[in-house]
Write a structure and sequence with these properties.
Helices cover 74% and strands 0% of the residues. The chain is mostly helical.
Length: 128
């Protein structure tokens, strides 16, 4: 087997994996009914699908003897912007009231800190 044949198989494998993930993302977006669940499918699965398609494009350019690294820039931009845009879309849905709001945090001084509540410290000391 020559390098060209191995490279062609690698490109085909990347195309198949990328197409599979993209199709799963599309089916998930069409099947889910709420905006928040519909948001989950294309942002999580679509990023991997498009990443594999871009990897196939980059591999193909190396197999035919040309170097192309533009795909790395596209992947970097995609991996940085997809989670941020998903976060903004989720926040818009929460503020519009289109979905259930997350539960409120407990009203104490230790929420979102590294401090341990006093009652937890007392129970740890008693068990030792």
């Amino acid at each position: 087997m020559s390098i060209d044949i191995i490279g062609t198989y690698a490109v085909a494998f990347c195309l198949l994996i990328g197409s599979f993930f993209t199709i799963v993302g599309v089916i998930g977006m069409l099947k889910f009914d709420t905006p928040m669940s519909r948001l989950h499918a294309p942002t999580k699965v679509g990023t991997v699908g498009v990443g594999m398609l871009l990897a196939a494009s980059m591999l193909h350019s190396f197999v035919i003897g040309q170097t192309s690294i533009h795909e790395l820039l596209i992947m970097g931009f995609l991996f940085v912007t997809a989670p941020i845009s998903a976060n903004f879309i989720a926040k818009v849905n929460i503020h519009r009231g289109d979905c259930e709001a997350p539960p409120s945090p407990p009203q104490d001084d230790t929420w979102s800190t590294l401090d341990t509540p006093q009652e937890d410290r007392n129970s740890e000391g008693a068990s030792q």
